[in-house]
Each structure stands twice: as C-alpha cells, then as structure tokens.
C-alpha cells in the first residue's frame, strides 16, 4: 500500500479535485461537510460523550467539519467523468451520481444500487501535519503529478433557470430583452451550438450553454445520445451578436490600470468578463464549424464524440466564468455592459475558420495559454488590494483554464497522431501563419507544462509580422 501525500488541508478549499497520478490513473478527491452522526438514543452512553477522547476516535478522513473521500475518476459503467457527478445525501451517506447515466455510488464504499462497484480509496487527514494522505494499493512508487481543482458554481440570474422556455425574464443586459428559446429534444449538437452563437443576451447565452452541456452528458451512452449533426443548414453568424455592450476598437477600451483602485479592478473584471463571453462562442463554434472534420491521409477519421464532450465542457466552464465575473462586478457596484468592449478574440476565430489545427493552435495554445501567464499577476494585484472575493473568482478561472489548454493540446496531438505529423511543428507553423507578432515572455512554464506545453512549443516563436519583417 502506497501512502501518497496530496496537499496540506489549508490549501483545499473546493468541493472536488481531480488527482492525476504518475501511473496515469486519475482519481477524484471529494471534500464534503461532515454529516452529523445520527442522534444517540441513549445520551449517557460513551458515544454521546463530547470529551477530548472523542476527537481522537474521529474518522481518519475527517477534520474540522470536513470529510474527505477519494474514488476513481472514470465511472465503472462506461467511463463517465465522476468529477462532474451530482452529490446527494441518503441515509447519512454521500451518494454521487454519474453525469452520463446517473448510476449512483456511495462515495465511501463505492457501492451502487445497480450492483456495480466503483473503486474508492482511504484518505487520512490526521497525524500527518495537516496533510491529506491517500492510501493507494500499489507496490510501485506512485506520486501526484497534479491536483486539479474542479469548480462548479454557475451564478445564473435568479429566475432564469428552468423558467425560461419562451420567457425572456432574467436578462442582465441593459438593452432590449431577447426571448430565451430552447430547442426541441431532437435538435443536434450543431443546431444548439449555432443557436448559442446567435444568442445576443449574455444571460441567455450562459444558460443555454449550461443546458447544452447537461443535455449532452446526460444522454451520452444512453440509447438516445445527442446527434452531432453538421453545419449544413445551420446559420453561423460572421460576428456573434451582443446585447447591452458597446463594441469598440481595441484601443478605445479603458486601460485597466494597476488594480490599486476599485475603478481599476472593475475595468479588469469587465475586460475579463468580455473575454469569457467570447470564449463561450469560440468553444461552441469549434464544435459546429468542424463537426465533419476528417483527418488527412489514407485512413481519414472523423472526430470522436469525446472531442465534442471536451469542448462543450470548455464552453460550460466559460459560461460559469462569465457568471462569476458578472456577479463580482455587480457586488462592486458596476455591471457587465458598463464599459465598452472589443471583439479582438473573434478575429482570431475568423482567420482560422478553415482549419481545425490552426484554430486549436491560435485560440487554445496561444490565447488561452497566454492567460496562464498573466493570470497569476492579475490575481496578485487583487490580493494586494485586499479583494479576496475577486481573488477566489480568478483562482477558479485560472485552474479551469489550465484544463482548457490541456484540451487544446490533447486534440492537436490527436489529429497529428492520426496524420503522422509533429504537433510542435504544426503549432509553430500555424503561429507563423495566423498570429501577428511575437509570443511574449515571461511564460508561466509550470502552468503551461501542466497543460502539456513544454518549451519546444513556444520559445523563440514569432507570428507573421515579425517573420515578414525579418
Ligand atoms: S458512464 Fe457512468 S453511469 Fe454510465
């Protein structure tokens, strides 16, 4: 049995984490409020004692009101992502339900009401200097490569969720309210993605995006999975419309400042919320625009369904990020739409609209990877200003964005693997063709490496202006 140190208790603040182990296995660590034991019918019995000896007998997985559980990350039924499971309490035990077909598992024992069993692993949080330790059945040395926080809060406007079939209430924009429209049960993924791209109200866009991801994951592996469809017959906008914001040239957007004043921090949060809304569009656009993509070569292959799951997950994350930033702006007395914005990110989508390899290279591995470089600096500015609520929001976003770069890296590598090309060279060639100017240091080499990007990808690399000038 290997004892694997995961992290100090003090650094664990979220409900779930994906544990990436050096043997390539992935587990989920759940951090859940300790369930109160059932009331003791005999208050004079030892188990009702509140003496110091009680805490010494507390379960090993419990500390300070939180209990910790670890289970395999892939559902034993058909591989569903257990980190996205829903969590309920039944008979004083936590039950997690897989997002794909809703099989339920006791998070401590792994037992399921359908008769299959998930692997669970003992977690020890006592007597090791406040460090969470995982007991893992392996004779070989196994280490944690990465502990990835899974965020889960989507802050939708009150009244928007579930009420909205044909109901425009809940809009956060200051302009005309567009009707919120859901598509029918037989709508394809491509039809949904086009619908989201054409949705101009940001509150509706995030709600529809969350709905689509839920639909896709719930039906995946059932007898009626969502049909992917194609872009034939769906209308894609040249530039996705926007309600309630003034779209201006990049140079006319207010300078963010250094974060020392509230006005400066609002400028930064507003600019980030704008980027997140474009990121939703970019993630759904990649699904519909390249739905029928085929790899080159004699054994041409289309994209597996996991590709669509991954990018719809990215879209769902971006919708969540927008909701968090919009909420934070409102807590600071502002709102999304209070400042002008630009659509520079969409320009990169336009120039890469013909080639999936170029799209992934520029959007995921240049722009999103750049976010990994600058996020820690931005977070530090908010921390120095004492704005902990914004720090918490930005840290959720940063952790998610590492996984988005991972998604880009994974699918570029998959395509290159099929086509027997080198992903590093494909990436660098695309940057030289479709990105303007140099990739700017300093790079967050650690976060980039976590996402799969080693220095061969981005060192000494410049886009087309510089190449032409040389
Ligand atoms: S994959 Fe988890 S229930 Fe089917």
UniProtKB/TrEMBL annotation:
Residue ranges under compositional bias (Basic and acidic residues)? Answer: 240-249
Recall the GO molecular function terms of this protein's record: 2 iron, 2 sulfur cluster binding; metal ion binding
* Bias kind Low complexity: ranges: 45-59
Q: Name one Pfam family in it.
A: DUF455
What keywords does the record list, in alphabetical order? 2Fe-2S, Iron, Iron-sulfur, Metal-binding
Q: Where is the Rieske domain?
A: 29-134
Asked if Metal-binding is a keyword of the record, the answer is yes
* Annotated InterPro entries: DUF455 (IPR007402), Ferritin-like_SF (IPR009078), Rieske_2Fe-2S (IPR017941), Rieske_2Fe-2S_sf (IPR036922), Sol_Rieske_ferrdox_dom (IPR054716)
- PANTHER family, alphabetized: 3-OXOACYL-[ACYL-CARRIER-PROTEIN] SYNTHASE-LIKE PROTEIN, SI:CH73-314G15.3
Protein name as it appears in the record: DUF455-domain-containing protein
Q: Which species expresses this protein natively?
A: Aspergillus ibericus CBS 121593
